[in-house]
Amino acid sequence: MTRAPSFQIQAFVALAFLFAVPGTQAATDSASDFAVIQKVLQHPRCQNCHIPGDAPLQFDEGRPHAQSVQRGPDGKGAPGLACSTCHGTKNLPASYGDHVPPGAPNWHLPPPDKKMVFINLGAHELCTRLKDTQQNNGKDLAALLEHVDHDQLVLWGWNPGQDRAPVPIAHADFVAAFKRWVDAGGPCPAS
Ligand code: HEC
Ligand code: HEC
User: Fold this and answer.
1) Which pLDDT does position 122 carry in this prediction?
2) CA angle 89-93-96, nearest 5°?
3) What span, in angstroms and rounded, lies between the C-alpha atoms of 37 and 144?
4) Which of 14, 17, 90, 133 sits at a 20 to 30 Å CA gap from 106?
């Protein structure tokens, strides 16, 4: 009997914890899921194409693309210097050595009026832009999930060819975090 009050207090504290935490916990989970998403979107293998400028970037340090390559009117390169002049539909075999153009189907940049910028943005801004249907060809959250799960340019980030570093988070873990974030309604971090 003497132990009852303290047991009750413990039980009360435990219950209060259970009831108080879910909202906060969900917010924390979504924030950590978005942190994973941000880490992938802002990896060089992704952000080198998701840029505000008019030329793609190259290498981990994001140097402007050699040969004065330009985005062009539709994202597929300047007239006369299309991305497909050099970039094929798949990576070349290792026997070609380093510094050959990587490849994936339909290798190109987003068009100039919908640049889909990921580089150099804070979490809130990146999240808002990712979901902006004016910018992302009308993709809702489900369509964004489908894109990161199956798009060939996205998948290339895990198989970039030659000596390029792949995205360091497993694709399955990225998709799982993205799905949890979508299931939570795609909340954007406050800052
Ligand atoms: C070769 C350039 C290129 C690379 C590399 C690339 N993307 Fe993209 N990305 C595009 C293009 C182009 C689009 C526009 C959709 C289309 O036309 O296919 C796009 C669209 C997207 C979208 C939807 C746009 C939005 O704003 O909501 C997401 C998400 C995305 N890419 C994620 C990634 C991720 C993640 C990676 C790396 C693992 C990646 N991309 C690598 C070119 C690229
Ligand atoms: C004249 C040939 C040529 C053209 C045209 C060209 N590229 Fe490239 N690109 C290359 C080569 C070669 C590399 C590899 C450089 C290296 O690894 O040293 C490369 C690398 C890249 C990379 C770097 C990948 C990474 O993460 O480091 C991106 C992104 C890219 N190109 C996008 C494009 C886009 C988009 C276009 C069209 C707008 C385009 N390129 C047009 C030759 C070309």
Assistant:
1) 98
2) 110
3) 12
4) 133
Mutate to test the pocket of ligand 1, among 47, 50, 76, 173 (most ligand atoms within 8 A of CB): 50
The C-alpha atoms of residue 176 and residue 16 are separated, in whole angstroms, by 30
* CA–CA dist 33, 87 (Å, integer): 33
Q: Read off the amino acid at residue 37.
A: I
Q: Which ligand is nearest to the CA of 58?
A: 2
Determine the residue type at 180: R
Contacts of 52 by beta carbon, 8 Å cutoff, 6+ apart: 115, 117, 119
How many whole angstroms separate alpha carbon 170 and alpha carbon 166? 10
Q: What is the pLDDT of residue 35?
A: 98
- Residue 191 alpha carbon to ligand 1 centre in Å: 23
**CB within 8 A of 20, min separation 6: which ones?**
none
| CB neighbours of residue 168 within 10 Å | 10
Residue nearest to atom 41 of ligand 2 (CA): 83
